[in-house]
Amino acid sequence: MPINQPSNQIKLTNVSIVRLRKGGKRFEIACYKNKVLEYRNGVETDLDNVIQINNVFTNVSKGEVAPKDNLQKCFKTDDLDQIIKEILKKGELQVSEKERTHQIDNIYREIATMVAEKCVNPETKRPYTVTMIEKAMTELHLSVNVNRNTKSQVLEVIKQLQEKKIIPIARAQMRLRITAPIKEKKVKEKLVPMISNIEDESYNDEYELICTIDPGQFRKINDILQSNTNGKGQLELLSLNDTSEGDIKF
Amino acid sequence: MPLVSTTQLIKLQSKVENIRNICILAHVDHGKTTLSDSLLASNGIISTKLAGKVRYLDSREDEQERGITMEASGISLYFNVLRKSLEGQESSDDYLINLIDAPGHVDFSSEVSTASRLCDGALVLVDVVEGVCTQTHAVLRQAWLENVQPVLVLNKIDRLITELKLTPQEAYIHLNKILEQVNAIMGTFFAGDIMEEETRRHEAEKEKLLQQGNEQIEVDNISAELSLEDRDDSKIYFTPDSGNVVFASAIDGWAFRVENFVQFYAAKLGMKENILRKVLWGDYYLEPKTKRLLQHKHLKGRQLKPLFVQLVLENIWSIYDSIIINNNREKIEKIVKTLNLKILPRDMRSKDTRNLLTTIFTQWLPLSSAVLLTVIDQLPSPVVAQPVRLPKMLYPNTDMPEKPANENEKALFSCDFSDTAPIIAYVSKMFAIPSNMLPENRRRQLTAEELRERGKAHRERLRALNGQSEESVSETSSTTSTLTSPESLDESVEKIKVSSQTDEDGEVDQPKTTKETFVGFARLYSGTIRVGQKLYVLGPKYDPTFPDKFCSEITVENLYLMMGRELEALKEVPAGNVFGIGGLEGHILKNGTLSSTKDCKSLAGVSMESAPIVRVALEPAEPSEMGKLTEGLRLLNQADPCVEVLVQETGEHVILTAGEVHLERCLRDLRERFAKIEIQVSPPIVPFRETIVPVPDNQQIKEKDNAQRGLVTLSTTNKYCTIKVRAVPLPQNVTTFLGKNAITIKSILDERQQRNKIETQSIEDEEDTFKDVTIKGNRILEVDEFLDQLEAEFNKASDKEIWKDIVDNIWAFGPKRVGPNLLINHVPNYKRKFSWRKYHQEVNDEVNEEVLSEDNSSKKYELSIRDFVEGIHTGFQLATKSGPLCAEPLMGVAYFLEDFTINTNDEDVDISEIRSKLGGQIITTMRDACNKGFLEWSSRLMLAMYSCDVQATTDTLGRVYGVISRRRGRITSEELKEGTTFFQIFALLPVVESFGFADEIRKRTSGAASPQLIFSGFEMLNEDPFWVPTTEEELEDLGEKSDRENLAKRYMETVRKRKGMFIDKKIVEHAEKQRTLKKK
Which of B633, B1028, B1074, B1075 to mutate to test the interface with A (most CBs of A within 10 A)? Predict the structure, then answer.
């Protein structure tokens, strides 16, 4: 039992603890705040800038260092650096404030950028700027979820924006050309409910349909087309989002 | 003093010879509005006491706040001249002066252009202390271009006395210098014009020579004879003895010409008037004893003062001296007595010396009469001016014909206001005024008598309420103040009348309507325009040979007399007048021609001195107010001739303004008048492009593996399919070729889509697009022609092995199917159903054949690349649309699809199921493979560039260079403009660095240089954003972190940050230095 005396005490500030349970034991390391995530995504490479003390603890706040044999038993090595790296990589941690705001900020902006990419102003057929979308999102009182993936959140946001009618907004339409052998033209009946606007169709040597659709329907249309025509139907993506091009002068 | 009703002004409108349309032009803060104030005071619109302080024509709130004029405003003045004819009979002449006060700030030079178009004459003011400034130069040039006769007003002479404390002698030299400067400018215009004419003639002759063969060689000799010296340029210069120079101090309310003193002294000195007139300005001296005139060479070393100093300046100096500098009561009284002025003892006793000064001067040398007389004498009436000015407006770019070509032009040249003459008017700008300011929305017109009654009652009421407002004071004084002209002048101002409406009463109880109405600011050149008439509006592009295009019909709804901030309704306007016209909304955007016949050329557009270059993006603070913003922008666009509004492809609303001050005014207008919402302003989003270059990243990787560089093999997540893609940078010339011919590619694609449409329609369409395109200077190429040219471009490239037979294997272009990136099919055993070249021929047969053959060959359907053609294509499009650096489009990259294998070994798997599952995965795999291949090379960012065109004088040249290089611009050429002192500089400037560029360059050169920016394309920034020092040398030079900032990286990261992408940046730089304060 080591004696806790002021002279051999090291006081740590700015501590954030990373924990890992392994082999039924709990291990902790003392890190600096706001640094662990950076280390994990590779921005910070200097280990000294991440951990406070080059040691593994069973309890950081009490200053209990993990016994060597426990480490050996659980990690199958006695290289402290390797163990620390493993804990850093796999351990659970309290995400500190700056990291969290940074994360949320980034996701928020990413969502806004993606919404702006996917949507248009139906009146002008032009996209909104990202800042406009961000403003509309604040008006929604949207709180982003760090753990859910962005794409599903984007779809959610679009739905909410459309419901609350903060700005006139619609999904940018996809333009497709569907071709099928002429004998299979009956497939049209099945496709029509999913198409938002038929621009052109013809029945020459082949059945051909140029239309705009909601991007969410693409999969379904493809499936129906393929299964109904035995794979002879062709789907050509004319444009991913059908927006008007060029600058307009007033 | 009786008021002049509008009827009197209207009566004057038809006396064309007695109309003068003038504008006041000068550098900013040289006293334009103050001068016009004094002129207004002479008409009793404002009080003489307040002249120069109220700045009546600055009617906007921000104009008053900032103290600069922002919008040109017009006012009609009445002026009566008593003229003694030779026989001694007195005749009085009434004159109507349509005055336009133009702004002086550079940002509003468009207003100067529009104003000078409407006028025949201009008062050009120069502050004698500041001298000739950049805008003086600009307005003189504008006047010259528009053929407007200028009169020079040397203003603020009082500052020479009170601030610079010059002696009269020094002041004389100073004034002379300024005069010389101005004349030098006029000289350069003259010379420049002649040079231009000469070259034009030369060219014409050359052509003639070419036609006729070389029978005449003497032509050159003939034209050489007509060189500079032969032209008479004496008329264009300002000389005091010819009467086109006015000496003035607008703030103290005085002005004079040499003429004034000539008459005064002729009798005294016993000299003939016309002799004295010639000698009063210049190096002439008076021998004190003999009273004889001497020239400089006869002085023989004696210290005599020039006549002008002795007779004119010293008198003025002595008044200032005795009043302002050392207040000497007795001397003042003496002066007043000799000048025969009537000064009220009240004024004499007053402590306010300035007031006394003004009182004395306004009686002795009244500004308004001096200026207005000059205007009447020197500036042409419409009848005189129109024959000179109109040819240039009708035929702006050619030599003008001597004689009118048809009846219409004859009427135009002669300013014919008879009913039979065709109506032709030019609207130079549209301005917005609140609807409740329009006379028809005000209360009914009150007669002057009623008005005064009302005014009195109103004032009494106010007095009773103890809340006497300043305006009413000024009105009282304005109606009572009488100006009598000094007897020393033969021509005298007799009656000065109030013609304005005091309509405050009318407005007070009007409910505030917020609508804006547009009124056209116009000048009628021929005919008489009446309310209710039907006229044609001819757009700037109108051509009488195609009478249906750019032409619409309107009914004249309202006509207005311009009275500064107020408008007076009129029933008709005869030719030669400046007026406001309502009912043009929706027909004229910024300017245009009104005509009663369709057989009339559109009058040439106003030449703008400065194009709008300050570019910002606007957004409403509340996202739901987008509609209001668009509507507001539409109004703003109409109200301001110098604003451009765009909606960009990115959805941004961008406005272009002439400068920062102009921008501020536009924003204020939007916030307070047009849109009435809070607006956020931000620099517009700058586009980038991403590309790769064949340079090896570092020394270790030598060029040996260049052939295999960029090769990536990637499998879909379910391992069914493997894609092998190779990225290769396209040769530069190919990239530019593709960029140029995007239209061609698009038209080929369109053709493919529309091939089944009815032929006639498509032909028509094509013709239309063809027309549009030829205007832009690019031509749509035929498919084969295009491909041949493309092949030729590829053959020029150094690495011919790679590009062999490339054209026939092109699969697609990207992004958006037309961009400068290629997807090339290199899959063995797979031949595309069509190549671009063959496609033009019969395709459908081929397709059918293939389908049939497949049906026959194997019973069991096997998945092949054909099923995923679209997936691959889409993946390529996605990859080229947003590259791996910062999700910006790619440029100049070719992707070779080297191999595509499907490994479905399990027999029992349902094919259709795999197909639908694989479809999506192929897109992402293809995209990822492309991106990975891209990163194998050394990547580069491409910056959007402006080509920048600056004119600068020699002394500001260095500063221009400084600004351009600080913003990472590159000078491409610099040359001296012939016949001028200007340098023409062409430079390339990255758009990212251009925010605030125009303003900076103007500030650094004190406004002498103003750039024009035109988007010119993308240019590579030769710096790898991922570069870090690796070799020993580099590490030694730059350290591990490289001290020098990586510019490409910085650009990349700002874009990534904006898009919320991952940035390689630490949240906390130093872990142990974080603050550990507790949160509250």
Answer: B1074
